[in-house]
Amino acid sequence: QVLMALMYDAIGQKGAAGETYLDIYNKVKSDSAVSYILAPTRRKSRVYSIESQKLLKSTFLFKEYDDYTKALFEIECLHAVKELIKGEQKFSVSDISIPILDAKNNAYISVIKRDRCKLLSDITKNLQPIFTDVLQYLALIHAKLKVKGLNHVSLEEVISRLKYSDELKAAFLSNKKPLEESYLHVPDAYHKDSHPLNYGISESGAVILFDGENRGIRPVTSDLAKLFLLHPLIKPDFIIAALDKYANFYNIYSASPDKMHSLHLPFLNASIEIAFAHPSRLLEDSEENKEIKIHLFRNALHSINKIKNEFNGFYQKHAVAYD
Question: What is the pTM of this model?
Answer without folding.
Answer: 0.90
